[in-house]
Specification:
The protein has 290 residues and is of the alpha/beta class. Helix content is 27%, strand content 20%. The chain has 9 helices and 13 strands. Strands 1-2-5-6-7-8-9-12-13 form a 9-stranded mixed sheet, sandwiched between helices. Helix 1 packs across helix 3.
Length: 290
């Protein structure tokens, strides 16, 4: 998971993260749920635990509107990322509806936004998301179709089948839905099976397991028993995981026109900042480069 740096503007309480990639592309992230009930073992942020709400249901929309004029980037070039440090559709969302309240404001303001979730509760908001059209991108995260492996790596998240069904449901309702095979994990991720399980029209991106070395993420010190380097007893260095990923990219290639392989995360911070959103072209790189 990529964590966006905190903003320094003390006027912003809800819009807690932002990053500039270029004059034409900014990210801004409202953060409103603290901790994540799903507890995926590869998470490298301090987001593991019982989710709690940081704002009240009847105040969050007004706070969001009040903070919009203070974001660093121009609104027309800003992509809003809902609850970027943890899942925006944790179980508490069913009661609090904070994510839905923000989507309503984003729709009213005609702003671009995205979110990544493992939760099936997103189906509740299908009609609203469909009304947002291409301004909204609902990203469903799933690393493998193997249910036993899902149980081992994705904590209390919904099953692979439930998430696949969620993708189909959102697609049928006209939502701009995307599959995220991120993290792509050696000996776990079955890219071809994942692609074959979703509608051909659904955009998919793949990105390798993030060890956290290249970025400024906050590590979850409360879960020292797990390291993203270890997968089912096999330990990987960043280079090893990236080399396996590049070899997989070269082997499979772009078997669909609407898929992309994201550039591997490297130890070079400045380089990684830019390559995080760059595309890895199958066959262009040798695994040994990493």
């Amino acid at each position: 998971m990529k964590v966006i740096p905190r903003v320094e503007n003390q006027q912003l309480k809800l819009l807690a993260f932002e990053r500039k990639y270029s004059d034409m592309f900014w990210l801004s992230g409202p953060e409103y749920y603290n901790l994540c009930d799903f507890r995926c073992v590869y998470c490298i942020t301090e987001s593991q635990g019982k989710g709690t709400a940081m704002f009240k249901t009847d105040e969050i929309a007004d706070i969001f509107r009040a903070e919009l004029p203070y974001i660093s980037g121009p609104k027309e070039h800003t992509l809003f990322v809902l609850n970027p440090a943890s899942d925006p559709y944790i179980p508490l969302e069913e009661e609090m509806q904070l994510t839905r309240k923000l989507i309503e404001v984003l729709h009213e303001e005609d702003l671009k936004f995205t979110f990544c979730t493992k939760g099936t509760l997103v189906k509740r908001d299908a009609e609203l998301l469909a009304a947002c059209g291409e301004k909204a991108k609902a990203i469903i995260s799933l690393s493998t179709t193997d249910e036993e492996k899902v149980k081992q790596i994705d904590g209390k998240s919904p099953s692979a089948q439930e998430r696949i069904e969620t993708i189909h449901y959102l697609h049928e309702k006209g939502v701009n839905v995307c599959l995220s095979i991120a993290p792509w994990i050696p000996e776990v991720s079955d890219t071809e099976n994942l692609l074959n399980s979703i509608p051909e029209e659904v955009f998919t991106y793949v990105q390798p397991l993030d060890m956290g070395d290249a970025f400024e993420e906050t590590f979850d010190n409360r879960r020292k028993q797990f390291s993203a380097r270890s997968v089912f007893g096999k330990k990987y260095t960043v280079s090893e995981a990236n080399r396996i990923y590049v070899a997989e990219c070269n082997r499979i290639g772009n078997i669909r026109s609407n898929m992309e392989w994201r550039y591997p995360i490297t130890a070079d911070y400045e380089d990684a900042q830019h390559k995080y959103i760059q595309i890895l072209k199958p066959g262009k790189h040798s695994p040994e480069e990493f």
